[in-house]
Amino acid sequence: MKHLPIGFIDSGYGGLTVVKQSLRQLPNESIIYVGDNARAPYGPRSLTEVKQYIWQLTNFLREKGIKMLVIACNTGTAAALDDLRQTLAIPVVGVIHSGCRAAIKQTKTGHIGVIGTQGTIDSGMYRDTLQEKSAKLNIQSVAAPEFVEIVEQNQIEDPAVHDIVQKRLAPFIGNDVDTLVLGCTHYPLMKQAIQDVVGSSVYLIDSGRETINEVSTLLDYFHLSRSAEEAAAAPPTQQFYTTGNPRLFARFAQKWLNDGSVYVHPLEIKGEYLVDNHTNR
To answer: Which residues pair with 115 in a beta bridge?
Structure first.
């Protein structure tokens, strides 16, 4: 079982921020990633629809064989985490609870900001999780759907981005928010633009980084982690799939992961199934 890869799923590019942390913190582990770029973004969709998509991605990875599933998508976590945990026989990790724990640990004022897609914010999962852990917290949530579009369209370095970020994050300026949760895995790709707007006194919580800390703990707890010796005997592998354009995805992944060898397999959506028509590289 421990030789199997960790599975990662997301609506598009954003989950690569989680994968990047996995490659840094868990170098002995193999990974397999599916980005559902053809149906991104998930934020404006109903949670019922998103749950259906998450199950499609999950079933594809189950057929491939995985030892743990990481829902590297906040909207997907809000829509399907509980359902997946109740159904699957393997550990399932979302990105919301880890980010909440880190925010509570970090804040000094007790005033925490959360930004996410419309679906994530409307679900109330961040607010509920934070207040469940500490009723004294002051939670301020703002939907920032444009940020996902900016990342998916690879416009992060566009000069207009600063004005967009400044307008969207205006509610956080001038109050005592000292911790801001990046409640979408796309957002760390815009971390510099966000930090420039909110200022250096506000600590940004990268849910992807915090999630991999939890993944590492669970791998050890369930005796699923691979040792350096095992990795030397059977080197870890990385597999990437997308329902969108594989060339665009590969270009983005190569740059973000700083690995020019990244190859991306195309997936075709056929009814309730995802089909890999290119089983060989």
So the answer is: 142, 182
